[in-house]
Amino acid sequence: MKVFCVFMQKGGVGKTTFTNALAYELSHYGKVLLVDADQQGNLSYLYDHEYNFVDKDKCFLAVLKEESDLKDAIVQCRPETDDFKGLYLLGTQKNDNNLRSYMETGFRDDPHSIMKLIEDAKLMGFAYVFFDLPPSFGYYEKIILSNATDIIPIIEPEDFAIESLTNFNAQIKKLKVQYSGKFSPCKYLIVNKGNPQKAVHRYWIDTLKKSSYEVFEFHDSRAVPGSISYHVPMQEYQPSNPFCKSISMLAKKVK
């Protein structure tokens, strides 16, 4: 089983969108569990905009605190078929202050709850688990990242974003040592919201393509917020969009 985090310690770069899109694509290859580990609950919102099936007694926080079993808390987002192995969500309530509080206090007393969640998912037959994380790099995020098998950084092609990537690389090196990280070296990089018309974007994309990362470039598209508005993955909202082709290519690399 592979455990993925699409991550960057900067908000608004598209972590949730790409977590969802890549998870959806990988569900063609194996059963996928999406874990909404961000107190904002944005990943849950993509599938349940009225938060009808995210029960406070059966959600991500309840599983962490061992108040609910994983099998009772997950919700099936897409059915299992011959071509689609199934997509499931462990959700979080919108702007869950209880989860935020637990991240900062209670989680420190039992960081092994993440390892138990991952082990339970493996026993349930999941091939892939995705954690959608807050845009920060505290103890809570470090524990989850250190238990991932694959971390995929995501940035926008601008000056400050490149600085964030440099900081990310330094933090990941420390994480591997300090927390005995299980993840493989970061091979792939998502560059989001690129605009070929902007010279600065072209410069940074060209520069990044010369780095050790294999770069997957995604141009800014109005279809992405459209898919969020309709609460469906991009592959269902506009399957002919170049976004979907690039996500498919990335999925084949990481599967």
Concise synopsis of the structure shown:
This protein has helices spanning about 15-25, 40-45, 60-65, 70-75, 95-105, 110-125, 140-145, 160-180, 200-210, 225-230, 235, 240-255; strands spanning about 1-5, 30-35, 75-80, 85-90, 130, 150-155, 190-195, 215-220. With about 260 residues, it is of the alpha/beta class.
Report on this structure.
With 255 residues, the protein is of the alpha/beta class. Helix content is 43%, strand content 17%. α1 packs across α12. It is globular, with a radius of gyration of 17 Å. The chain starts with a strand and ends with a helix.
Write the layout of secondary structure elements.
Blueprint: E1 2-7, H1 15-26, E2 32-36, H2 42-47, H3 60-64, H4 70-73, E3 75-78, E4 87-90, H5 97-104, H6 112-123, E5 128-132, H7 139-146, E6 150-155, H8 159-178, E7 188-194, H9 199-209, E8 214-219, H10 223-229, H11 234-237, H12 242-254
Parallel strand pairs: 1-5, 1-6, 2-4, 2-5, 6-7, 7-8
Antiparallel strand pairs: 3-4
Helix pairs in contact: 1-12
